[in-house]
Amino acid sequence: MKDEYVKTYKLSDLSNKRGKAFKLDDDHEVAIFKIYDKVYAVDNICPHNHVPQIFDGYIEEMYVACPIHGFKFHLETGEQPTKTGCKLKTYEIKIEEDYIYVKKPKRKLFDFHF
Ligand code: FES
């Protein structure tokens, strides 16, 4: 089956280290971050308490900190600094003609690791 990418924002729509939420479909909403010249897409729903606010988190190096309780998740792996506990889902992206495309997941909204 062919990978399906969803066209989201233009690169210039994003501010450095500021997230923006984007609904991929009825089940998936991502938070997209640009850190200098790199772009990352992670689930917008925090796996800790299922609050859709990761886009509003603050960036510390390669981690986004959830604005609700401050859990930090790595933007590439979704892991917390301790590499234990809940994990944030990450999404593949590609950039074409200045637009960010996010790969739609096949199933599963969360990855739980206990
Ligand atoms: S809801 Fe995100 S850290 Fe608690």
Please explain how this structure is put together.
- This protein has strands at 5-10, 20-23, 29-35, 38-43, 58-60, 63-65, 72-74, 90-91, 93-96, 99-103.
- By secondary structure, it is mainly β.
- It has one domain (5-103): Rieske [2Fe-2S] iron-sulphur domain (Rieske Iron-sulfur Protein), CATH 2.102.10.10.
- The model has no long low-confidence stretch (mean pLDDT 93).
- FE2/S2 (inorganic) cluster (FES) binds at residues 46, 48-49, 51, 66, 68-69, 71.
Search tags:
4-stranded antiparallel sheet, 3-stranded antiparallel sheet, mainly beta, globular, binds FE2/S2 (inorganic) cluster, 114 residues, Rieske Iron-sulfur Protein
Give the names of the bound compounds.
Answer: FE2/S2 (inorganic) cluster
How far do the termini sit from each other?
Answer: 31 Å
For this structure, the CATH topology is: Rieske Iron-sulfur Protein
Q: What is the makeup of the main sheet?
A: 4 strands, antiparallel
State which percent range the strand residues make up: 35-45%
Instruction: Tell me the helix content.
Output: under 10%
Helix and strand content put the structural class at mainly beta
The Rg value, from CA coordinates, equals: 13 Å
Total discrete domains:
1
Tally the helices. 0
Compute the average pLDDT.
Answer: 93
Give the number of DSSP strands.
10
User: Mind telling me which CATH architecture this is?
Assistant: 3-layer Sandwich
Shape: globular
Helix/strand order, N-terminal first = EEEEEEEEEE
| Strand order, sheet with most strands | 2-3-4-8
Q: Which regions contain 5 or more consecutive residues with pLDDT less than 50?
A: none
- Report the CATH superfamily: Rieske [2Fe-2S] iron-sulphur domain
CATH class category name:
Mainly Beta
